Amino acid sequence: MTLHRPDPEPIVEDAEEALLEGDDYPTHRRGTARAALAHREFRLMWLGSFGSNVGTWMQQVVLGSYAYQLTKSSAFVGLLTFAQLGPLLLLSLVGGVVADMVDRRRLMIGLQAGQMLLSVGLGLLVMRTDTPSQTALLGFVLAIGVCNALSAPAWSSVLPSLVGREDLPGAISLNSTMINGSRVIGPAVAGVLYPIIGAGWIFLINAVTYLFVIGALLVVRFPAIAKSAEQGWDRLVAGFRVARDVKVVGRILTVLPLFSFFCLPFIGLFAAVAELDLGLNSKTLTYGLLYATFGCGAALGALSIGTVFAGVDKKRLVRLGLLAFAVALGVFGLLRQPAAAFPVVFVLGAVYFGTTTSMMTVLQATLDDAVRGRVMALWFMGFGGTVPLGAMVFGPLLDATSGTVVLGLGAVVALFLAWWSDLARLARDDERAAV
């Protein structure tokens, strides 16, 4: 595979096309968050996804707290987290193949509607009794996870077509900001409402928020994307072939699952870490604010990639971000007082999502449209898929020891990855090989 080198587009041609399509032509610097928001189709999808993700994070933070209060078992919380995100590990590849074959709008509408109905079912299950079946709870969460795994590669493969390659870094930054901005708003709203209305109503509210993204999908105009001519087995393994042939892609898709498995289990086990190490009950407002602080840091870290660091080489930011993450995670694992945890989790969130946003920017800028869905499927397998696997594996270790052990191990691995992820050197190797 040859590396993609974006061709410069004439400014007059860009402006005429933007005016004809009803967009506000970005007179500011290309590749920034402002330039991405100037594209009407991206703007609509971003706003719709923002509304939906607020509900998703309300459900996610309450689900972890509800499960821990129901069972007092970090292992069960880890299992539930795996049911929610584990399908990304097993089904993202299928989702990537489908995303490169079918109408992506119809695929995403159908899968979003499926998650909406399943969230309704989850809410009704929890509202019926104070001790719902743990098996049924896992079943609903698993089904939601399957729909999410099949739709995630389609959304990531559509993103570049809504803004063009020049504004892709800003779009990725805003997409990550949206996810983490909703991580702030969702837990904050849930922290207030959960003690008042209970988990069941939170899950029903999440179901309603799916209408925002479904509405956006119904009105957004998706440009036609060239389809790959590959068939059968070649179509299925195309993403692995790109990872083998392009060193930067291969290294990112190797670093990511190691980072997710060893360094990020604390996300799925956040409620348990807060209670065991910091003495915070996960149903309290203080816990909700702590989680929201983490999300606020993540949102600002992601936004910085398309603003403050828009002109900085993202390959170098990945290395620096992993180093900063290792320090912040190690410090968080040593804390025992909630007050001291607030500034630390803010920094932890910022370097966590600033680093992963930089990695995704490098990856997306390297890919051709014909294989984008399948390569991004490997991204979701490595990122979303291994986080819950790590939570399931490290949950029992957390029960037996403390957050100091689990987070300390993650900090050591992050230090190694900071040394190993020399993407700038690999990019130079790829360029020489492509000549």
- Poorly predicted runs are 1-26
Number of helices: 20
Name of the CATH first level: Mainly Alpha
Helix content: over 70%
Q: Could you explain how this protein is built, in words?
A:
With about 425 residues, the chain is mostly helical. It has a single domain, classed as MFS general substrate transporter like domains (Growth Hormone, Chain: A). It is built from 20 helices and no strands. The radius of gyration is 21 Å and the shape is globular. The relative contact order is 0.17. The N terminus is likely disordered.
Outline of the structure:
By secondary structure, the protein is mainly α. The protein has helices at 11-20, 33-37, 40-71, 74-85, 87-99, 104-128, 134-163, 168-219, 232-236, 238-245, 247-263, 265-268, 270-278, 285-305, 314-334, 338-366, 372-382, 386-400, 403-420, 423-434. The protein contains 20 helices and no strands.
Name the features.
80% helix; mainly alpha; 435 residues; disordered N terminus; single chain; 0% strand; Growth Hormone, Chain: A
